[in-house]
Amino acid sequence: MKLIISIVLIALAATTLSAQAKPTTAADYEGTFRYAVFETNRSFPFVFTVVKEKFVGGKLVSTETSVDERQAAGVERETIKLERGGKTFSSYSIQVGFGNHTDCSTDGAIWNGPQEFVCPGPDGSNVLTLSRPRKSESVEFSVSERSINGEPVKIYRKYAIFAGTGASGKKSFEEEIATIDSRGFFISVVDTEGTLDPKSLTLIRNQTWDFETKFKPVVVPK
Description:
222 residues, alpha+beta, 12-stranded antiparallel β-sheet, 2 helices, 15% helix, globular, disordered N terminus
């Protein structure tokens, strides 16, 4: 059911964009995006949520949900839930400053730390994956305008196609849809990745910024 809902939402977003979108330049897109990254992420406090769905053969295999309550620079509380193979894994992190000020937990009750490093993931993994930017065969940029709850927003879209690699030789795509408010702040960014011919999803990452929800002060765990 979750897979069906995700695909329907993507299809609706694509329909809306195709009906209203106008082409824009890479400079406009990238400049707007950089401004939004800088301004949104320094406007504390806010709740930053990331839902990442991974697919294999078009089927959903895992969902990771991260809820990060960001009180100030270097002061935040993060909860991560990973659903995979019928099991749920959890991890918790509290940071109250830069340096040796991060505490970690797997149940939210017993804490380890403080330490300097990022806490392990829900499945115990602390591997950081780095990848080089790929050169696309083609890329399109567009922007459309609409309103959400009576407020004007702009929706920026980047769609890139990449040459086939590996044994299958299938081409792949990456789509990025950013909804930005009148201040230039992010409301959401949805990244979708997959292969083409036929089209098959491999990843959906949905990031949202919430400046309205209140949360308890972030303090050192006892």
